[in-house]
Write a structure and sequence with these properties.
The complex is a heterotrimer. Chain A is α/β, with parallel strands linked by helices. Helix content of chain A is 37%, strand content 24%. Chain A folds into 2 domains: 1-82 and 159-243, 3-Layer(aba) Sandwich (Rossmann fold); 91-158, no CATH class. In chain A, the strands form 2 sheets. A 6-stranded mixed beta sheet of chain A has the order 6-7-8-3-9-10, with helices on both faces. In chain A, strands 2-1-4-5 form a 4-stranded antiparallel beta sheet, covered by helices on one side. Chain A is globular. By secondary structure, chain B is mainly α. Chain B contains 14 helices and 2 strands. Chain B is globular. Chain C has a two-stranded antiparallel sheet with strand order 1-2. The longest helix of chain C is centred in the first third of the chain and has 29 residues, at 2-30. Chain C starts with a helix and ends in a 12-residue tail after the last helix. The chains are: A alpha/beta, B mainly alpha, C mainly alpha. The B-C interface holds B 51, 55, 57, 59, 104-105, 107-112, 114-116, 119-120, 122-123, 126-127, 129-130, 237, 240-241, 244, 274-275, 277-278, 280-285, 287-289, 292 and C 32-33, 81, 84-85, 88-92, 94-96, 98-104, 106-107, 109-110, 221, 224, 228, 259-260, 262-263, 266-267, 269-270, 273-274, 277, 286-287.
């Protein structure tokens, strides 16, 4: 069981034409940790997630998971290996029920049979609090619920690491608290969390370590308090202060 | 209001038995007309397997019908191979072609995939025209004539059963769920562990296989065909409308859509020769604007309560 | 003679470019593959034909009228029909425009019959002789008018406020709102413009090629080729694509066989779609 360096992003660079979205970024994720990633819009956070999960191939650099190089692997393989992710703008399967949505992750991410996947699906949905919406379609549930669905689907793939992309945007303070509790529970079950978030309160209270990206470069790394007081970080945000 | 599952099954079985026994009572024109409808159900169901379940709109699907027709025809005519093996080989070639073409083409998004397949089908038409040594070119291909209409009725019917059976399997299986996930949000499916590339290709291959079978049967049934006949973009359009009119992504959809449209066209062709294409156009417009979920979708919404 | 073949290709290429720009524009801004494009060309050709046949109006003089009529037609079609599926998945707009194309082409067939017609003004045969090259005046003028319409469209997009709003909308739907115009209006205007330019192209084509209700299909295929090669939504690319098609067609018809034109065109189109969907300049829209 790898504890240190479960996920290693090594000098990853990604370009889109003239735009350098990621510039030799290094990240080390240890098992069981909750790592936060913050940075202004367009700083490359989602791009980094896309590289890790295999949606993009970096121009240079490597991604290692459990000692294996996964840089060129397809997203579905990476998911089956144990890295799940959610999307900033949720992507539910609209014509399928909430349960069927989650079953996809259980069937293909975890490799279960139809019957097992159904059981697992119900279990995960219960965990995130969507048990009474099992047979509803995503269009008929709230935005908050859709975020939970996205999380549930990721969890059903039986991940070791979960990449969360702005799960809490647009939620009320109460809803944010609920999600924070949920994530603490997820972490207690041994899942390593790597999250992108703009809601500073969430990042500060939940994360043990934070990295900061700006214009594709990692400009700071450390405990929440250190990062909050880092001049580079404050400059990057131009006044975005810890509330 | 929910119809119990067993009632649906009994109705289906009754219908199958009815259709299986029909040739004992009907003959001549009616028999041929129903065979014709079966052909369209088969084609619509074939397109539905791909488009209804993966969301990839194949604007060149007639290519696989044509390949089935030509391979069957050429094997029977030039190599003297009997009908069933020839048709089967034709269908396999169609299926494999789809997979081969799909590998590069399915990387394209929406409209580009549609155009790419349209170009492919049109290109095949011209290839069939140019390779006249093998295909007879513009003069077409003439097969030995076989006029046992009951025979064609039963093989078209069997093909329909096969196509519907596969559709049913799509609806119920792990594989089918993956296809629907691809249709709804391909990226989300991929990161949830679905090997989208592989799944799409398999669906494409299966759907082309069915179209190939229908093409092979058509070749033998008509005894004569030419490139413009079996590589006709209007055939693809019909398949698409039938699937959408009935309800894409459903089992009954292609059946209802094909029966409805084929019946209308038969009537129109007899009464209003020149306006039938205008009517087809209107049906397309109406379906897209007002009944995008098709007739099945309409019925589901109005008659059954949605949770 | 090679130079003549090349020249013919260039002259026809210019017209092909004007055939495709409307299609490219509509895709670039509305993101729909407009199958009715072929019918816009056909209608433009017929307007020119009937005005000439019934009222003796010179085909070049009736161009503004074609432009105006097709603009109105395109605008209304988008505003009242196509606008309904702007939010729907792409395949819906493909199907819708296909249905509309069937309706329009077949009504034309019903009304005007399938006979092949040609617009043949008295000056049709006259040509210019330049260093052993024969340049028919008609080809030259249609070539020039085609270039003017492409340039005119480009200037309109670059220099006018509406043009700016159109370009902003092609970047993002909110681009229009930021400019203070409603996206729905921009869509309708753009569609009208695309239709108008296509109509004018049809008018120009009527002087050199047969006019008949089903003519739209081939020109639609040509337009696909041109915009995929030149880059979807990239107007200068449409110009390049037009010339490439014209020259290619001229070379193949002269040195190989006319029947191969389609096959070669399709192969190139196919390869481009797979290997370089953004077109030769890499500026095409693929999303």
């Amino acid at each position: 069981m790898i504890l240190i360096g479960l996920l290693k992003v090594e000098r990853v660079t990604k370009n889109f034409g003239d735009l350098t979205a990621l510039d030799a970024v290094d990240v080390t994720l240890d098992k069981g940790v909750i790592l936060g990633m913050i940075g202004p819009n367009g700083s490359g956070k989602t791009t980094l997630f896309n590289v890790i999960s295999g949606i993009y191939t970096p121009a240079s650099g490597q991604v290692h998971y459990r000692g294996q190089t996964i840089t060129r692997k397809r997203p579905h393989s990476i998911c089956r290996m144990g890295i799940a992710r959610t999307f900033q703008v949720v992507l539910p399967f609209s014509q399928m029920t909430v349960l069927e949505n989650v079953m996809i992750g259980a069937l293909y991410g975890s490799g279960l049979s139809l019957r097992e996947a159904k059981e697992k699906g119900i279990e995960v949905l219960e965990f995130v609090g969507l048990k009474d919406k099992i047979h509803t379609v995503p269009d008929n549930i709230t935005t908050h619920d859709r975020r939970r669905l996205e999380l549930a689907r990721a969890l059903s793939t039986d991940p070791e690491i979960i990449l969360l992309d702005e799960t809490m945007a647009g939620l009320t303070p109460t809803e944010i608290e609920e999600v924070l509790d949920l994530l603490r529970e997820v972490n207690k079950r041994g899942i390593t969390i790597f999250m992108v978030e703009h809601i500073m309160k969430a990042v500060m209270t939940l994360c043990e370590k934070i990295i900061v990206l700006n214009y594709g470069q990692k400009i700071a790394e450390g405990a929440p308090q250190e990062v909050a007081e880092n001049e580079e970080v404050i400059k990057a945000y131009l006044g975005d202060r810890y509330v | 209001m929910k119809i119990p599952v067993s009632a649906k099954w009994w109705a289906a079985i009754a219908l199958v038995i009815l259709m299986a026994l029909a040739p004992l009572r009907i003959s001549g024109y009616s028999l041929r007309f129903i065979t014709f409808i079966f052909m369209w159900i088969g084609l619509a169901a074939s397109l539905n397997l791909l488009t209804g379940y993966t969301g990839y709109l194949d604007f060149g699907h007639v290519a696989f019908f044509g390949i089935g027709a030509y391979i069957t025809g050429i094997l029977m005519l030039k190599l003297g191979i009997p009908f069933f093996p020839a048709m089967f080989i034709g269908a396999i070639v169609s299926g494999i072609t789809a997979v081969v073409v799909g590998i590069p083409t399915m990387r394209l998004k929406g409209a580009y995939f549609a155009i790419g397949m349209l170009v492919f089908a049109e290109g095949l038409k011209h290839v069939a025209l140019e390779l006249d040594g093998i295909t007879g070119g513009g003069n077409g291909l003439s097969l030995p004539i076989y006029t046992n209409y009951v025979f064609f009725y039963y093989i078209m019917f069997s093909t329909v059963l096969l196509a519907i059976g596969i559709t049913y399997w799509f609806e119920r299986s792990k594989f089918g769920l993956a296809l629907m996930a691809i249709r709804e949000a391909e990226l989300a499916a991929e990161v949830s562990g679905v090997n989208t590339f592989y799944c799409k290709l398999i669906a494409f291959g299966i759907s082309a296989f069915i179209a190939g079978i229908v093409g092979g049967i058509y070749a033998y049934w008509m005894s004569f065909f030419y490139p413009g006949d079996v590589f006709n973009v209007l055939t693809t359009v019909h398949m698409i409308i039938m699937a959408f009119l009935g309800g894409a992504g459903t089992i009954l959809g292609p059946i209802i859509g094909a029966t409805f449209l084929a019946a209308i066209e038969e009537f129109l062709w007899a009464e209003f020769k020149y306006t039938y294409l205008i009517t087809v156009g209107f049906i397309v417009v109406v379906v897209v604007l007002y009944i995008p979920r098709g007739i099945v979708g309409l019925i589901r919404e109005k008659v059954f309560a949605r949770s | 003679m090679f130079a003549q073949v090349l020249l013919n290709g260039v002259l026809i290429g210019g017209i092909y470019a004007s055939v495709a720009v409307g299609f490219s524009l509509i895709f670039g801004v509305l993101r729909i593959v407009n199958i009715v494009h072929g019918e816009f060309i056909m209608l433009g050709a017929f307007i020119t034909y009937w005005l000439y046949k019934l009222m003796g109006i010179d085909p070049f003089l009736s161009l503004p009228l074609t432009f105006f009529c097709l603009y109105i037609f395109g605008f209304l079609l988008q505003r009242y029909v196509i606008n309904k599926i702007m939010e729907a998945p792409e395949i819906m707009s493909l199907l819708l425009t296909f249905g509309l194309s069937l309706i329009i082409a077949n009504i034309a067939l019903l009304a005007w019959k399938g006979d092949y017609r040609l617009v043949n003004p008295e000056y049709a045969g006259a040509h210019l002789n330049l260093a052993s090259l024969t340049i028919p005046y008609i080809r030259l003028s249609t070539f020039l008018f085609a270039l003017v319409s492409v340039a005119g469209l480009q200037l309109f997009l670059q220099r006018t406020d509406i043009g700016r709003a159109i370009r902003a909308t092609s970047q993002s739907k909110d681009g229009a709102r930021l400019q203070g115009v409603s996206p729905a209006l921009i869509y309708a205007i753009t569609f009208g413009l695309g239709a108008a330019v296509a109509g004018v192209a049809g008018s120009l084509l009527s002087l050199s090629f047969s006019v008949f209700p089903a003519m739209g299909g081939d020109y639609l295929l040509f337009s696909f080729f041109i915009v995929v090669v030149g880059g979807m939504g990239h107007l200068p690319g449409a110009l390049a694509g037009g010339f490439i098609l014209g020259i290619l067609q001229s070379l193949i018809t002269n040195y190989l066989s006319a029947g191969l034109t389609y096959i070669i065109m399709f192969c190139i189109l196919y390869v481009m779609l797979i290997v370089r969907p953004t077109g030769i300049f890499g500026k095409g829209i693929v999303e």
